[in-house]
Amino acid sequence: MTVATGTLVLAGTPIGDIADAPPRLAAELAAADVVAAEDTRRLRRLTQALGVTPKGRVVSYFEGNESARTPELVGELLAGARVLLVTDAGMPSVSDPGYRLVAAAVERDVKVTAVPGPSAVLTALALSGLPVDRFCFEGFLPRKAGERLSRLRETAAERRTLVYFEAPHRLDDTLAAMAEVFGAGRRAAVCRELTKTYEEVKRGPLGDLAAWAAEGVRGEITVVVEGAPEPGPEEIGAEELVRRVRVREEAGERRKEAIAAVAAEAGLPKRQVFDAVVAAKNAGA
Predict the structure, then answer these.
(1) Percent of the chain scored above 70 by pLDDT?
(2) Spatial separation of the C-alpha atoms in residues 178 and 164, rounded to whole Å
(3) What is the predicted pLDDT for the residue at 2?
(4) Strand partners, 191
(5) Which of left, alpha, beta for 46 (phi over 0: left; psi -120 to 50: alpha)?
(6) Could you give the CA distance from residue 9 to residue 83 in angstroms, rounded to a whole number?
(7) If we measure between CA atoms, which residue out of 225, 224, 222, 218 comes closest to residue 168?
(8) CB under 8 A, 24+ apart: contacts of 47-53
(9) In 3-state terms, what secondary structure has residue 8?
(10) Beta strands in 87-166 (DSSP E)
(11) Residue 177, helix vs strand vs coil
């Protein structure tokens, strides 16, 4: 006989304005058998604002006890409980506790669902004024300067818009490092205290934003940075042209067609791409 397991519910909570709470949040808080909260004191303020009293057991689930408490919560789920996971703001697992529990639940075939809610990542992206058709979320950068620079260099050529979280006391150093690696002229937006009373979105080149942040910035910070520009014809070397042709050939295109396609997308004469391919072949590359 198959024993029915419970359900893990990931619930988004307001990132600022309590009026942004998802309509289902109050119902889930009232009905859950277990409410796992990043900060039980903040949960209490949230439930009071929503006018709801959890019927279930409330436990803490934060970075310090996430590893130890995950097996306990999985046990509750396997016993049939409905476990609601909330963090201080936004969606669980997105630079917040939750990933370990979700992974453990999935591994045990426990149903995992979500109450969609506010997200600082998407809110900042939408307000930034930068391209939103393709983006990647990089979370928090390392605290140490050398590691931070190394991480930024990994994404220096990334063409998608980049989104980061940052602590206010490190913002000036982070923006200065971004200006160094990405270029002082790269466009960016610093989104502060989103949906709160003192919400502010500061837009401009990284160099200007770094100078502004040096004076001191407070609040919850999300940084959005424009992706790297598409390289011009003079910036694409022969090695890259050959690589692009090979990728197309491996995907099934004939060499002639691959050369024509690469030349068109790079804005180069077909002969230049052909010569690069021949030279690579003669060099045994």
Answers:
(1) 97
(2) 11
(3) 47
(4) 201, 222
(5) alpha
(6) 6
(7) 218
(8) 49/18, 50/18, 50/21, 50/25, 50/26, 51/26, 52/26
(9) strand
(10) 111-115, 135-140, 161-166
(11) helix
Question: Where do we find the tokens 């903040």?
Answer: 42
- Residue 22 CB-density burial (10 A; 0-12 exposed, 13-18 middle, 19+ buried): middle
Which pLDDT score is estimated for 96? 87
- Token pair, residue 184, equals 């002082």
SS3 state of residue 223? strand
Which of 26, 33, 30 shows the shortest CA–CA distance to 6?
33
The whole-model pTM stands at 0.78
| Section 5-26 average pLDDT | 95
pLDDT at 101 over 70: yes
What is the β-pairing status of strands 161-166 and 200-205? Answer: unpaired
How far is 162 from 223, CA to CA, in rounded Å?
8
Q: How many CB atoms lie within 10 A of CB 126?
A: 13
Q: Is 175 exposed, middle or buried (0-12, 13-18, 19+ CB in 10 A)?
A: buried
Residues 6+ apart with CB under 8 A from 5: 77, 78, 80, 108, 109, 110, 111
Name the amino acid, one letter, at 210: A
User: pLDDT at residue 240 above 50?
Assistant: yes
What pLDDT sits at residue 212? 97
Q: H or E segment at 35?
A: strand 34-37
Residue 57 is encoded by which pair of tokens? Answer: 């057991």
Q: Give 170's contacts (C-beta < 8 A, 6+ positions apart).
A: 143
Does residue 31 have a pLDDT over 70?
Answer: yes
Is residue 171 within 8 Å of 215, Cβ to Cβ? Answer: no
For the segment 35-44, what is each residue's pLDDT rounded down to a tens digit? 999 999 999 9
Our measurement of the distance from residue 280's CA atom to the centroid of its chain's CA atoms, rounded to an integer in Å, reads 39
Rounded to whole angstroms, the Cα distance separating 124 from 109 reads: 34
Rg (the chain; Cα; Å): 24
